[in-house]
Design goal:
Elements: H1 9-23, H2 39-105
Helix pairs in contact: 1-2
Amino acid sequence: MGPPHLYGCRDLWQVVHSEHNAKHPACVHQCTPKAKLSSQACLVLTCASLLQELVNTLVSRRTERESIDLRDREIERQWRHLALVLDRIFFCMYLVIIIISLVIFFPREQRAT
């Protein structure tokens, strides 16, 4: 079979119909001769179920993306908190080293009394 745009209307309906029946074997609106549905009604039902499947896929992907974004924001917040803590620790170490070096290099002179 060629690409869908080369099919005639009847062939396109048969392709969509067969793909739908293959994916959904227990579907209540199976398009068989016994179903007594017109080909247009069956095509509408098939398209509706395919659209519903597409909507469900998009909703689940959006939900996954939101949960990933939420997790990424939480990780970013934790890293930011860690950076703030480390920044304060290094600043305190810097101050202590400066004070110690000032005391060592510039000691007070002892006055004789």
